[in-house]
C-alpha cells in the first residue's frame, strides 16, 4: 500500500510523456473525434479509481466513528470537504465522487462475510473503464431514491439495463447513451420501481421530505426540495394572502387608487413570491422566537470596504454565501440593520473598532407602525409586521434614527426605493409620497397611510365643520 503514490506518480509521468501530442488543430475531423473518445477512455479509468478512493475516505469518515472520523482528525467537517482540500476539486465534484464511491464499495460484514456493493453493475463497469463518473453518478442518484421501496430484483434489472445503455452493450443499446439521455431513462425506471406510485404514503413522504439551499449560479442561489402536503398548503395560503389582487390603502381613493396600484406592479408572480418569502424570513429573524447565534438574534454579517460604499463601485460580501452582493443590497441592509466600522492597517490588523450605530428600537417601531399602518407604497398589501423601517434621510447623510425620519416599507420597495422613482419625504413628522414620473407625470406629494386610526382622523378632518378643522 505504501507504494501506491509512487506507482501513480510513475503512471502520471508516463501519461504526460505519452500525451505529449501535436496540437489537435492539425487533425482531420474523424481523427479528431476518435482521439477525443480515446482520451475519454483514459479519463474513465481514472474516474473509477477516484471514486474508489473517495469511497474509502468516506467510509473512514462515517458519523458513527465520532472523533475518530478521518475527516474530523484532519480538521474537516465531512469526507467531501477533506477530498476537496486534498484534490482542489469543487465541493459538487467531491460529493459526487463520494456518492459513487460509497455506492460501489464492497465491504465486509460483522461475521467476516463479504458484503457486495450497493450497485455492483455500476462498480464492474467503472473498473472496466467502460462507464464514466458522470453516468455512474446519474444511475446511483436516480435509483438510490427508490432503494427503500423498490423490489431488489427489479432494482438489479434496472441497474443492469441502465449500465448497458451507458456503455452501449446489450441488444437494446446499439450506441452509448449520453449522461443527459441516461438521466431521462433513469427517472423513468425510478417511477416504475416505486411500488407506491402516486398514492399518498405518509411514511414515505416523511422519509423524502427535505429542503436544500444550492450553489451559486448566474448570480442567484438555487433552492430545491420536497414539502409535506400540509406544509406546502400553509406556505401557499400565506403567499396567496399577500398576492391576492385586492386593493390596498394609500393616498389615492376609489378607481384612481386601483388603477395606480395595478400600473405600479411590475413584478412577475414568481418575483412576488420571492419577495414575500424574503419578508417572512426577515420577520422570523427579528421575532426573538428563534435560537440565538453567539448570544444574538440570527444576524447576517455583511462586509464592505468604506471606499466602495462611498464611491458606489465594488461589492459587499455576506457570510454564508459565496456570491458577492451588490452595493444596492448593502445599502438596503445598512438602512435596515445598522453599520459598525472596523478599521485595519495595511497588514490586516484591526486597529479600531467602532460601536454599532443604533437601529430603530421596538418602541420606535410600534410608533411608526401606528402612524403608517403598513408599506407606504400605494397598492402594496404587505402588513406592518412584515415591513422594514427605511431612513428617509440616509444615516450617511446625517439622517437621525428617529420616528420623524423612519417609514415602513416592505422588503421589495425598500430594496428598490433608490431606483424605482418613488419619492418619500417627511413634513413635520408626517410621511408624504410622490409616484414616479412614468406612473404619474407631474404627480404631487401626498400624505400616505393605511393606519385605521390615522384614516379615521383624516375622515373626521375632511368632513368636520370648517370651524373644527385645524392645519
Automatic annotation (TrEMBL):
Limits of the HNH nuclease domain: 363-415
Compositionally biased region (Basic and acidic residues): 455-471
Cited InterPro entries: DUF222, HNH, HNH_nuc
A Pfam family that the UniProt record links to this protein: HNH
Residue numbers spanned by region Disordered: 433-471
Taxonomic classification: Bacteria, Bacillati, Actinomycetota, Actinomycetes, Micrococcales
Family: Belongs to the Rv1128c/1148c/1588c/1702c/1945/3466 family.
Name of the protein in question: HNH nuclease domain-containing protein
Top-rank taxon, per record: Bacteria
